[in-house]
């Protein structure tokens, strides 16, 4: 009996990998995809997670307050240098179609009495970003939806225009619903949303196979070749990956697309913001045929 008891009390071999194995690039990327199934990570999540207290809001994992006393450093950067903020959790709604049709319907959800509108000359040319308050269609001054910012793509030879509207994730569903209603957009027949989801599922299955094999270090795909997982962001914090992300109006041709987490957004504050951008961004050489 004592011998049998000793056998049952024997500890199982730990399946936890050593730190060297966990820090391999292939394992880091697989863990990145696995841990953001419920709360989406921003591109700067790792940097913030080491320096901030993280909170889960609006389907994202965001940095709330710094772990050290860096308030003076932030204030110094805003007043004398440059401070960068990651606002990629803001949702981007893209509208495409004829300019006249876009302005006609967008005028129903805003009012000139509150300030700027989508028809402002400086904003309509694409040179400046505008901000305004949205309301339900033909309901001003009642039923306010919330504040948004927008920017038009500069004009080209085509009569179609492109508009990006940035909304807070807490307001996205209400504003998106109102936009689809005024433009009478319905879901397109073909929706390409299964490719990234199936790829993610296959990567998770590969991770499970590696864990079960224990000593096997390299992951292999069906063809036996070395499989390298790709860092993927499936859906976003305000949309399920199996839901559609694009809608189109059959009559007017207006298209609405949800570009959340596809277009990153950063805010630079401080007197040296312009010089930082000029040193960071380099103009590409355009070759005309």
UniProtKB/TrEMBL annotation:
It comes from the Eukaryota. The lineage of its organism: Eukaryota, Metazoa, Chordata, Craniata, Vertebrata. GO terms for cellular component: nucleolar ribonuclease P complex; ribonuclease MRP complex. Residues 4-97 form the Pop1 N-terminal domain. It holds the Pfam family POP1_N. It comes from Illadopsis cleaveri. One of its GO terms (biological process) is tRNA 5'-leader removal. This is POP1 protein.
């Amino acid at each position: 009996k004592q011998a049998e008891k000793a056998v049952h009390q024997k500890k199982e071999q730990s399946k936890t990998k050593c730190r060297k194995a966990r820090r391999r690039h292939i394992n880091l990327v697989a863990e990145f995809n696995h841990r953001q199934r419920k709360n989406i990570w921003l591109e700067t999540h790792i940097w913030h997670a080491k320096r901030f207290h993280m909170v889960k809001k609006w389907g994202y994992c965001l940095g709330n307050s710094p772990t050290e006393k860096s308030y003076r450093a932030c204030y110094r950067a805003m007043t004398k240098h440059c401070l960068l903020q990651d606002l990629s959790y803001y949702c981007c709604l893209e509208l495409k179609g004829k300019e006249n049709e876009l302005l006609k319907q967008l005028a129903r959800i805003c009012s000139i009495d509150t300030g700027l509108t989508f028809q402002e000359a400086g904003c309509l040319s694409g040179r400046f970003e505008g901000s305004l308050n949205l309301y339900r269609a033909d309901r001003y001054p009642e039923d306010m939806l919330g504040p948004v910012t927008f920017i038009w793509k500069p004009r080209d030879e085509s009569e179609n225009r492109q508009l990006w509207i940035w909304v807070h994730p807490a307001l996205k569903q209400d504003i998106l619903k109102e936009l689809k209603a005024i433009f009478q957009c319905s879901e397109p027949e073909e929706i390409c949303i299964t490719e990234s989801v199936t790829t993610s599922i296959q990567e998770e299955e590969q991770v499970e196979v590696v864990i079960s094999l224990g000593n096997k270090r390299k992951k292999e795909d069906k063809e036996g070749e070395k499989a390298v997982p790709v860092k993927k962001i499936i859906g976003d914090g305000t949309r399920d990956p199996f839901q559609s992300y694009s809608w189109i109006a059959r009559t007017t041709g207006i298209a609405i697309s949800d570009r959340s987490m596809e277009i990153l957004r950063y805010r630079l504050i401080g007197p040296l913001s312009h010089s930082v951008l000029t040193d960071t961004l380099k103009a590409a050489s355009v070759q005309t045929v």
